[in-house]
Each structure stands twice: as structure tokens, then as C-alpha cells.
UniProtKB/TrEMBL annotation:
This is Ribosome biogenesis protein, putative. The lineage of its organism: Eukaryota, Amoebozoa, Evosea, Archamoebae, Mastigamoebida. Residues 15-38 have a biased composition (Basic residues). Residues 1-51 are annotated as: Disordered. Residues 1-14 have a biased composition (Basic and acidic residues). It comes from Entamoeba nuttalli (strain P19) (Amoeba). PROSITE patterns: BRIX (PS50833). One of its GO terms (biological process) is maturation of LSU-rRNA.
């Protein structure tokens, strides 16, 4: 019995020692963090930043420096999309593949409502050659084709008229407006919509961004208050569709933030695009000439590197 009592007394003595050592370590770490914050404020050391794929991104000659590279900026301003930034209005045909599922047709019709001055045409048995010739005769600027697989839209083709280029995107993670929690509906579809493109940093990325911007009217002072965002991150292009409105601040809490507050609601849909290829001219399936074609070569470290992106 005496031995058991002695062992219990020893355990009771050891516990406060452990607590004391832990509290000392916490105090030491807190003082180290406090000194580090003071040094950062004084500018003697730099704050640590989390290492992500964006911070580790490999920059090559394809990056566009809009501030210093004047030649690249002039080339971009005088490309095939320059007329749309000078006031030309887009005129778009939106259609689907032959014998498309009803889900794909509904999605194509929804796209025709999002893009300004776009019309949905049911494909029926019309060939792409026939559609392209019809678009040239009637001064259409772009053709958007929705392709499906397994009863869902999986590919998106954008053909710039009259001389190209043609873009092929893989489409996935499609969420319809009814599947988005808290989505709203509006009646101002006929009013021009704003377009924001972010995250496009290379020559190829700027080309894709200018094509996406050319699908929307470039007129200022929009009244519809709708905005579409194409955000490029790690070569994935995220699509979002919102509507915003401005309200005057009603209480002191809102006035402290500003005289006017902005409310944003999502309209939908949501989806993600992945660039597969860019082809010169209109769509040619016989002898295509590619500007860019996504073909992963596992023996090439540039293709398998996780820190190198094309857009």
C-alpha cells in the first residue's frame, strides 16, 4: 500500500512540471511571434507568404507585360478583335450538335440569352459548312456550338467570323440556374451585358480573353446591370453570371463603409472551361491548321510540370 501511495504522489508531482514546461514554451513562442511582427512593421524582414501553384508559376517569354512591352500591346490592339473594341456590335449564332439531347438544347438557348444580340438556331440536319456560309452572308460575327455526350453538354466551340480563329473548349461542372442556391431571375436580357476577364497573362491567354470579350457589347453606361466573369486560374476558366444594384446607406453602420452599398445576386449558370485547341480560320476537320493544340507529352517536363500554365 505504501508503494502505491508513493507512486501516486510522484505522478501528482510530475503533472504540474509538465504544465509549467508547456506554459513556458507557449510564452516563448508568443514572444518570438511578437518580435517578428515588430520587425515586419519596421521593414527589417519580409512577411512569409504561402507557397501555392500560382506563386511557383514558371514565367517564360509568352508572358505579356502591359506596362513595359509596348510592341506586344500594339500587336494585341491591332489583332482581329480590334474592331469590337472600337464600337462594332457582336451578332452571334448559338446552336447545338446534330440530334442533341434536350438538356444541351436548353443550355444553348440559355447562352443565347446571356450573350447580347445572339440568336438560337435549332441545328436539325444542317452541316457546319452550311451554317458558316449562312453566317457570312448575314454578317454574323461568331458561331457558338454546344456539343453533348451522355445527355449533357461537354464541349463548346466558338468560331470567329468570317476568317477565324476557331476555339474548342471542354465544358464540365455545369450548374443550371435552378440548381444554384439563392439565384434570382431578371427580365432585362435584351440589354447589353458587361464582361470581365481576369487571370489571362500569356499571349495565348490574352487571345482567348479578347475572343470572350468580343462576344459582348463594348458600349459603356450599361443599364442592365448584368455582368459576366471569365476567371482563368491554373488553365481552368470559371464562368459566373451576376446582377448588381446600388442602394443608399440607411443606417450609421452602412454609412461608415460608404454612402452607397452594392448588392450582388447570382443569375447562373455556372460552368468551367478548359481550352483544348485553337484552329486557324473557320472550323476545318479535313486539314486543320492549329495555333494551339493541347497534347500532353509525358516525356516532356514542360508538359507535366504543375507550375507551368498556358493561359
Amino acid at each position: 500500500m505504501d508503494r502505491k501511495k508513493d507512486s501516486r504522489e510522484k505522478e501528482q508531482v510530475k503533472k504540474p512540471r509538465r504544465l509549467n514546461t508547456l506554459s513556458k514554451r507557449k510564452k516563448e513562442m508568443a514572444s518570438i511571434r511578437r518580435k517578428r511582427r515588430e520587425l515586419i512593421k519596421e521593414g527589417k524582414i519580409k512577411p512569409q507568404q504561402p507557397q501555392t501553384l500560382e506563386t511557383k508559376r514558371i514565367k517564360d517569354d509568352s508572358f505579356v507585360d502591359f506596362k513595359n512591352d509596348e510592341e506586344a500591346v500594339e500587336e494585341i490592339k491591332n489583332d482581329e478583335y480590334s474592331a469590337y473594341y472600337k464600337g462594332r456590335e457582336p451578332k452571334i449564332i448559338v446552336t447545338s450538335t446534330i440530334a442533341a439531347h434536350s438538356n444541351t438544347k436548353k443550355f444553348a438557348y440559355l447562352l443565347s440569352r446571356i450573350f447580347y444580340n445572339a440568336q438560337y438556331f435549332e441545328r436539325k440536319q444542317s452541316t457546319m459548312h452550311k451554317i458558316i456560309n449562312y453566317a457570312k452572308r448575314n454578317d454574323y460575327t461568331d458561331i457558338i456550338v454546344c456539343n453533348d455526350n451522355h445527355k449533357e453538354c461537354t464541349d463548346l466551340y466558338i468560331i470567329h467570323m468570317p476568317c477565324g480563329p476557331s476555339f474548342h473548349f471542354k465544358l464540365f461542372n455545369l450548374m443550371k440556374p435552378k440548381d444554384i442556391k439563392g439565384h434570382v431571375t431578371v427580365s432585362t436580357w435584351h440589354v447589353p451585358c458587361e464582361c470581365l476577364t481576369t487571370g489571362f497573362q500569356t499571349r495565348l491567354g490574352v487571345m482567348v480573353a479578347r475572343q470572350l470579350n468580343a462576344l459582348f457589347s463594348q458600349k459603356p453606361n450599361f443599364k442592365g446591370r448584368r455582368v459576366v466573369t471569365f476567371h482563368s486560374q491554373r488553365d481552368f476558366i470559371f464562368f459566373r453570371h451576376h446582377i448588381y444594384q446600388f442602394d443608399e446607406a440607411k443606417d450609421n453602420f452602412d454609412r461608415a463603409k460608404g454612402p452607397v452599398k452594392c448588392l450582388i445576386d447570382e443569375l447562373g449558370p455556372r460552368f468551367i472551361l478548359k481550352l483544348r485547341s485553337i484552329q486557324r480560320g473557320t472550323m476545318n476537320t479535313v486539314n486543320p491548321e492549329y495555333i494551339y493544340f493541347r497534347n500532353i507529352d509525358k516525356s516532356n517536363p514542360d508538359d507535366t510540370s504543375k507550375s507551368k500554365f498556358m493561359l
